[in-house]
């Protein structure tokens, strides 16, 4: 069953953009990806990679039946400490131009303005995973800020601090940015349909680099769409029933 | 290890206790949280292991909580935890922010009986500046500069989980949620609610033993059917998303929260759950 209007849903385009970043041949190889809480679009991206025939192990923290961990989230962090997790996704209530993320809140500590849920494992995962893809659907000046009010996890750290990697990219509902850790700056890589360099600038609170030509973020191919709406959706129904119903028009079996 | 009533189990958590609760995907005892609201517990210091969910928001809303140490408080797909957010804004509770593996590590240090344990990562986060009990030191085993975070052992007064079953020996079974065992080892006492009591001794069954917490650690347990609800319990029952969403809507306001508690903690529904 496809969505009511049959067109490409924004979530499908985002999942496909994330899947292409996961498979980027210039980035460190991915053998094992972990996906944390409440992350249906990153989870869809990972399943798309797996269902496209790439050999990758997925560990979904919130999978109920067949959960991969026998020591809960502690095992996820221990696995990451051991160097067995190659890629993780993080978001942020605020994300700044140096790829710092804030999951704690705005205003004075500990979030006297708007309190966000909290840091989760970000302060550890961001340094201990070779690659992080930052993902936040809302792309507005209140989310993408010049400088975060509170640093939950730092985008760059001094050279003597042990660190396996940092942000590869930031994907939003409007565009894809690449992150250059040496310069601690984002570069605009592609804009989603309906967006332009100007519209991205007006909705982004931090400065970023713009190459001469900025392409549009590609749509999913027909094969990718078929995978998303078929086998990917099947894998996600148990954990994300509302997402599957809304995006793929698919209801879980009663 | 003794079998007691649910209300007696709530009496075993004194006011002001440091009470460790697993998150919504790892066997929290919502039944005990509701019983704590009924007994009007005060000044609890909650520890989210490593994050906090439904039970924590309920206890905060009911005025049972002085402090929360956690890595996040969230209702998952139902969004931000409304009573937690309101209490932070009002300054009614102290929040001690952490990050998930730091909480696990502090409990692992307690489990081993050592005073502290190091953890990679975290450096660069503002969390450290607000944790005077955490310290960044030079790795003593390295010849080159290598700053590393050390964390103190953390011994909760009480931990509360909801397990599937207890046996005649007082062992409790948590299945694949073996992180609950670390919590049991690190805490001074473990209080458990269970769906049912089974005959025999689960530690004599090779297939049940790995998911069993020995009665050594169990202070007391009580039978509370559907005691994790609305949270999922392994393969016993699923997450009740509609119930949590209805709570999240009601708890947007103090009045809505009070009405919800009247119905679901003190009302007919709660009585059935407590029997």
TrEMBL record, chain A:
SUPFAM superfamilies to which the protein is assigned, alphabetical: NagB/RpiA/CoA transferase-like (SSF100950)
InterPro entries: CoA_trans_fam_I, NagB/RpiA_transferase-like
Domain of life, source organism: Bacteria
A GO molecular-function descriptor: CoA-transferase activity
Transmembrane segments: none
Database matches in Gene3D superfamilies: Glutaconate Coenzyme A-transferase
Protein's recorded name: CoA synthetase
Organism in which the protein naturally occurs: Roseomonas indoligenes
From TrEMBL, chain B:
Protein's UniProt name: CoA synthetase
Organism the protein comes from: Roseomonas indoligenes
Gene3D superfamilies: 3.30.30.40, Glutaconate Coenzyme A-transferase
InterPro entries reported for this sequence: CoA_trans_fam_I, NagB/RpiA_transferase-like
An example molecular function term from Gene Ontology annotations: CoA-transferase activity
Pfam families, per the entry: CoA_trans
